[in-house]
Amino acid sequence: MIESLLVANRGEIARRIIRTARRLGVRAIAVHSEADADLPFVAEADEAVCVGPANPAQSYRNTEAILAAARSTGAQAIHPGYGFLSENADFARTVEASGLIWVGPGADAISAMGDKINARNLMAAAGVPVAAGTTEPAADLAAAVAAAAGIGYPVMVKAAAGGGGMGMGVAVDEAALRTEYDKVRAFAERMFGDGSVLLERYFPRVRHVEVQILGLADGRVLALGERECSVQRRNQKLVEESPSPAVSPELRARLLAAAVRAGEAVDYRNAGTVECLLDPASGEFFFLEMNTRLQVEHPVTELVYGIDLVEEQLRVAVGLPPTFDPEALTPRGHAIELRVNAEDPKRFLPGPGTIKTWVEPTGDGVRVDSGYVEGNTVTPFYDSLMAKLIVHGADRTEAIARARTAVAAFHLSGPKNNLPFFTDLLENQEFLSGNYDTGIVSRLR
């Protein structure tokens, strides 16, 4: 095992990685912006380095500053968390070229999956189901109109270089496509520096189901169950649970096998996620994208399987076998994660501010991965995620009951927060039935 690890991230995920590093006796090094100097992850690290001002481009995405921090502190490895530089293939290559260990998949795998069109084509060639869509970028509006005619409306218009629910729009007819194409292309150029656009068949009623994969040091790719991620606002997740209430044993076997094929197609190492759309009417699923990093929602898999995915990431990165027997790993119970955000619980607009009250729930089967404590300020510079409330129970019914109790016991004031939304969701009959889709939030509000 390594002796020192630099965590190139912030907030709850930096704090969570640091916790595992310290448990393993690994010296944990934090990097932080000027705006984050007072956050818990900075204090809890063995060493911390300020890498720039609040603007992420000048701090958390500042590769030169982060590499300089690694050199000055004697770090052996870099863990990128999620977001920021986690799926930046050039950064991964630079880290390894600098003689450091990259805790993540190889740069080639990141590159292959980073372009959504290339990823679709690779998955189709590997026998992974993909929805009808373009096999090359729609070069202009005329090409997009022609492609949509072949696919059939409605279509999803997506930034080829996008991810995390950003850079997407739905066109129900040609008039809407003309508007969405220009909008998505402009957004993609501004956000990702790549205006490439792809079109896919859009399913009005669909579920978002993903599979956690782990590429081992010996070359094997494992599938560690699926997660249901259909509770979303603006195509971004609010709630995840495992196992999915929509997935039968037969469908699970097909889904997990497809995810393993996806990982094998790019010689995947380390933790990653294969995201799919599931048509509840037909039971068919289609590849959506592969996230070549640790997911925000990884704790639900950890609780169901009884493993520490960050520890497994570190072991893969240095060529060690997993802590568990891949042939004997079995899921137990049900886990649910609620993303506690600094946002309006009805319109979901950001609501930063200083935290006046912060009391986390405790109890059997309750885990809180938080990035803040009382007195901290949630600034507008970064994602609104403050904490992840995760519960585990013997079955879904018990997990939901524990989630209700935990939400009621989570006392938070200062910034706006979405705890009231979760109170409503956990009493909603559609959610309780397990028979819901990605439109549930719009119907609930």
For the structure shown, list the relevant keywords.
445 residues; alpha+beta; 8-stranded antiparallel β-sheet; 5-stranded parallel β-sheet; 15 helices; 20 strands; 34% helix; nucleotide-binding; ligase; Biotin_COase_C; EC 6.3.4.14
Textual characterization of the structure:
This protein has 445 residues and is of the alpha+beta class. Helices cover 34% and strands 25% of the residues. The protein is built from 15 helices and 20 strands. It has helices at 11-23, 40-44, 63-73, 89-97, 107-114, 116-125, 141-151, 174-192, 249-265, 298-305, 309-317, 396-409, 419-425, 429-433, 440-444; strands at residues 4-7, 27-33, 47-52, 77-79, 101-102, 155-159, 168-171, 197-201, 207-215, 221-233, 236-242, 270-278, 285-291, 334-341, 353-354, 357-359, 366-370, 377-378, 385-393, 411-413. The strands form five sheets. The chain has an eight-stranded antiparallel beta sheet with strand order 13-12-9-10-11-14-19-17, sandwiched between helices. The longest helix has 19 residues, at 174-192. The radius of gyration is 21 Å and the shape is globular.
Topology:
Elements: E1 4-7, H1 11-23, E2 27-33, H2 40-44, E3 47-52, H3 63-73, E4 77-79, H4 89-97, E5 101-102, H5 107-114, H6 116-125, H7 141-151, E6 155-159, E7 168-171, H8 174-192, E8 197-201, E9 207-215, E10 221-233, E11 236-242, H9 249-265, E12 270-278, E13 285-291, H10 298-305, H11 309-317, E14 334-341, E15 353-354, E16 357-359, E17 366-370, E18 377-378, E19 385-393, H12 396-409, E20 411-413, H13 419-425, H14 429-433, H15 440-444
